[in-house]
Amino acid sequence: MKLLFYKRIFGIIRLKSGLRIGMSKDQMAIGDVDNPVIRNPLTEEPYIPGSSLKGKMRYLLEWHLGGKYITESDQYHVYKDEDGPIGRIFGVAPGNDRRSKELALQRGPTRLLVRDAYLTPESKQALERMTARGGYLTEVKQEVFIPRIGGDANPRTAERVPAGAEFAFEMVYRVMDTGDGGQTDRENFRHVEKALELLQLDGLGGYISRGYGQIELKYQVEDK
Question: Following DSSP, what letter does each residue of 146-205 receive, concatenated?
Fold first, then answer.
């Protein structure tokens, strides 16, 4: 097995609607937002974790390929085909049985690496003007939940990065020669591009069905 080259995917994620990627909150003070967004602990700036991007791309691509890639257990959907494109692109934790270890050796390392995406300097400057009206570099959206039975209004707040903000993102795709001159990885790259297309049709983060998380990607691909 030999690494032939990288395909570098880089560009801008532009939010077409508010984005909410939440974080856990161990302590809450009076007046705090119910659902805060994830932030860089050093800068306090919101960002998009690479794990969120990669996980959603994988999820959408598994559903797109369908068939043997998805099977439904009693409690959750699980990935089935360890030797297919999903396993090569996104990685699969090998089991302890002999067959799984042989497949892992044959498959090689995860091909797609997804970096965390950070606010562009222009967007950070624009969002700083919103600080006085809500959270730092974010907006605080007020919502009301009304149960179907009873009708009592229950107010709630959600922090999100407002529409129009832009994040710089980068992904790297490894093309490996596993005895085929890299042909399989070259062909599988079309699945990565399909996942990026599906991401724009679907959404990112939470509350997508309520209008959050619509994004637009502008990116380039170069071989390194």
Answer: --TTT---EEEEEEEBPTT-EEEEEEEEEEEESSSTTHHHHHHHHHHHHHHHHHHHS-SS
> What pLDDT digit, counting tens, does each position of 21-44 carry?
987 665 555 555 667 889 898 988
Q: How far is CA 18 from CA 83, 113, 133, 140, 214, in A?
A: 37, 26, 16, 10, 7
Beta-bridge mates of residue 119: 167
Q: Which 8-state DSSP code applies to residue 46?
A: B
Q: Which residues contact 73 (CB under 8 A, 6 or more apart)?
A: none
Mean pLDDT estimate for the chain: 86
Q: How large is the angle between the packed helices 50-65 and 183-201, nearest 10 degrees? A: 100
Which two three-digit tokens encode residue 189? 């790259």
Q: pTM for the full model?
A: 0.86
Residue 100's pLDDT is 74
DSSP state of 44: -
Q: Is 154 exposed, middle or buried (0-12, 13-18, 19+ CB in 10 A)?
A: exposed
pLDDT confidence bin for 95, thresholds 50/70/90: low
